[in-house]
Design a protein that fits this description.
transferase, single chain, DHP_synth_dom, 43% helix, folate biosynthesis, TIM Barrel, alpha/beta, metal-binding, magnesium, Ribosomal Protein S8, Chain: A, domain 1, eight-stranded parallel beta sheet
């Protein structure tokens, strides 16, 4: 037995570890690093002339580019699948920046995606003088529903003291963030009015603001966001991705508050089919990001959420977890909210109260595939799973 085996290298850190173990010289390591990491990038709807040029240039650099058959005769447009090492992409980008047909701008987009895939950590500047670091460990966001009709714990924490006690319990169990919601967004619920939402959550926010807790508020409403931020909240978790209340972006910019922008085809574009699941969601999240930045919220203050359960089929939800790392292309931390959701129940044939193991599996898989924050009901169990998964993910041997 000789021990020959395949190795899978996903980033520069892993490549460096392998090269150092081999005993390569420091200059050799730096030279080989860009050749050791292989990336596949999918470009959407590229005009045929541009697609042809991209294919020719990538082939010339030793990489590959797959295009539709019609590109050869210069008809229409095509998606392009690029296959190459980081070094080949470097050479491609340099050449595309000199080409016509909008390829300079496209080259910059490719460059930004590749940089985003290497970035791992950063921090969010919170209102009221706090900072939240991400990327060093998976952050646990504990769910606190102050509602009568949420799908898993509706009615349990309507009393302010009970809600605060549960928040403190989740913090003790390892929650880094408490996400307070006052209006259920489940598919068959009636959305509470803003006045009722505020009546439910403001007393809780005021009390939690006196504790050493980072507070997120699950709301899409500008007025609710304005009031809870004034009372001590730190993050706004918007299920509408700034599309349900067009004044919210301005409030976020005013407070410079971090925002979770979630993709949603339950309340928005209901029933609209996906032509390319990942690409469609990334495009729509990009629009939400552009809206936030145009209003004055820095890109560095944005978190993205692919929106499991919000207008996706059971299979599509599973596919999003499997391909979560694709969303790293947007260059922002990723929040994953799978806890106890219907797609878990339908996969396993289980009711809400029996979905713990399925939820924990989604937490582990999500973390391995790029989640920075997991939003969960079961904090103690999820914290342990996250710690173990982080230890495995960050082990370079």
């Amino acid at each position: 037995m000789n021990g020959h085996h395949a190795v899978f290298i996903s980033n520069r850190d892993e490549a460096r570890g392998f090269l150092e173990k081999i005993g390569a010289s420091p200059p050799g390591i730096e030279y080989m690093l860009p050749k050791a990491v292989f990336r596949c990038l999918k470009l959407k709807d590229i005009p045929s002339r541009a697609a042809n040029l991209i294919k020719q240039e990538m082939l010339a650099k030793g990489g590959e580019a797959a295009v539709a058959k019609n590109v050869a005769v210069g008809e229409g447009s095509s998606d392009v699948l690029l296959l190459g090492t980081l070094r080949q992409y470097q050479l491609l980008i340099e050449k595309l920046k000199l080409q016509p047909f909008g390829l300079r701008a496209l080259a910059e987009e490719i460059e930004n995606i590749l940089l985003a895939l290497e970035n791992k950590s950063g921090n969010l500047k919170l209102p009221h003088g706090r900072v939240l670091e991400f990327g060093q460990k998976t952050l646990i966001m504990g769910i606190l529903n102050v509602t009568p009709d949420s799908f898993t714990d509706g009615g349990r924490y309507l009393n302010t003291d009970a809600a605060v006690a549960h928040a403190l319990e989740m913090k003790a169990e390892g929650a880094d963030i408490i996400d307070v919601g006052g209006a259920s967004s489940r598919p068959d619920s009636t959305m509470a009015a803003a006045e009722e939402e505020l009546k439910r959550i403001l007393p809780v926010i005021k009390k939690l603001a006196q504790e050493d807790i980072i507070i997120s508020v699950d709301t899409f409403r500008a007025e609710v966001a304005r009031q809870v931020l004034a009372e001590g909240a730190h993050i706004i978790n918007d299920i509408g991705g700034l599309q349900l209340d067009h004044e919210l972006a301005g409030v976020l910019a005013e407070w410079q508050s971090p925002a979770v922008l979630m993709h949603n085809r339950l309340q928005l574009n209901q029933g609209q089919p996906y032509f390319d699941l990942i690409a469609d969601i990334i495009a729509e999240l990009s629009n939400s990001i552009d809206t936030a930045v145009a209003a004055g919220l820095p890109l560095e203050q944005i978190i993205i959420d692919p929106g499991l359960g919000f207008g996706k089929s059971v299979a599509e939800n599973r596919l999003l977890i499997k391909n979560l790392q694709d969303f790293k292309s947007l260059g922002r931390p990723i929040l994953l909210g799978a806890s106890r959701k219907a797609f878990i129940g339908r996969t396993l044939g289980l009711e809400v109260e029996e979905r713990l193991e399925g939820s924990l599996a989604a937490v582990a898989l999500g973390i391995m595939n790029g989640a920075d924050i997991v939003r969960v009901h079961d904090v103690k169990q999820s914290k342990r799973v996250a710690q173990m998964t982080d230890a495995v993910r960050n082990e370079y041997g």
